[in-house]
Amino acid sequence: MTEARHAGHVADGNQDKKQEGKGTISLYGGIAMGTGVMIGAGIFALTGQIAELAGPLFPLSFVAGALVTALAAYSYIKMSNAWPSSGGIAMILQKAYGPGVVAASASLLMALSMVINESLVARTFATYALRPFGMEQNGLLLSALALALIIFAYLVNAAGNRSVSGFSLVMSAIKIGGIAIFAVAAIWASGLFSGAFAQDVSMTSGGSFLASVAFSILAFKGFTTITNSGGDIVDPHRNVGRTIVYSIGICVVTYLLVSLAVGSSLTIGQIVEARDYSLAAAARPALGQIGFYFTIIIALAATMSGVIASVFAVSRMLEMLTKMKMIPHSHFGMSGSMRSHMLVYTVVVAGALAVLFDLSRIASLGAFFYLVMDMLVHWGVFRHLRTEIGAKASILLAALVADAVILAAFTMLKLRSDPMIVAYAVLGILVVFAAEWMFLARKTIEHEQE
């Protein structure tokens, strides 16, 4: 296993040197992609669900999520600085565990959590688009609009890297500026001591607050979009880490502003009632009808750019997994490159999830998959790579423990409120590991017979 990892390090290192300087995504384009995924999911898709669990303390849940994410980002930054690569999480796991079942399965869990995020944000886009017409409860229209956005994201990605980077940069500037205007205006209109912040904080239990942090972490996990696109970023050894840090910092400020604006305008009960479109609901009492429509427009821009950036990153990761022979590949009669095939597979799975699941269950499933994968990354880096990349064991273990505590709290809460989603998550993880074991075992047998 150690020899396999060492051989992989040498080969990947040589490849990194060949690709260095050939990236097509600038530092600002990478930040736009990272914030595009995070803000699309974190603000518009998850604020209501976080408030439902954390009560009046829900802005602090975003702070806790940022702290846990900062710990988690340490592993990814250290690895990306050493070996920047498109599909970077697959690279991290392969270097940590070798090209076996653990690395392949954890990489696939990450890819699935990203696809789940696409469907989550696509349904949020549809919810906000239908809200002005009072049709956000129409399941058929929700599914159709979500699917249309995913197809549009495919078309933008099929046009090439520069199209994704340029589109993400423009949309991120629009939505971050718009969200800041909304938040400041809403706080100014309502003050900081009304709405949810006038309610008793004792309505929040410690376990529920910890469980809410699982959603908050999901709101920040878009930074992995940057890791998975490392080989496409200009001067990756220098810019990948900077892009991750800047993206997380921008999102912390944005999330705090918005959570304060929503909490000052609405009570917790009102936020929960409108949890799939909570920003639009908060805009109307604070800013009137103009503010309501302004927020709708910003939400559509944010969720659209989030899906486009996520489709880009997950297709690169699946391409990397295929080239590393960690997942099977079939072109199903399609022409074109492997990358174009991965784009198709990504949007097909994301589209199916967007049609079949509601927002709450999509978000929960993504949280389970992501936390399990994240723990495997930290343990692998701690166990096998920390000396080689100069990582501090204390930070790696702190990230691992934080993930474990939050996963345990989230699991306990979901066992009480929605045990089926826990069953779906466990079944999904077991299926992924079993499928990878069978695929890799068959590949070994075929290799031995040659």
UniProtKB/TrEMBL annotation:
InterPro entries in the cross-refs: AA/rel_permease1, APC_superfamily
GO cellular component: plasma membrane
Regions crossing the membrane: 27-51, 57-77, 97-117, 137-156, 168-189, 201-223, 244-272, 292-315, 336-356, 362-382, 394-415, 421-440
Subcellular location: Cell membrane
Membrane topology: Multi-pass membrane protein
Principal place of residence: membrane
GO MF entries: transmembrane transporter activity
Keywords: Cell membrane, Membrane, Transmembrane, Transmembrane helix
Full protein name: Amino acid permease
Species this protein is from: Alteraurantiacibacter buctensis
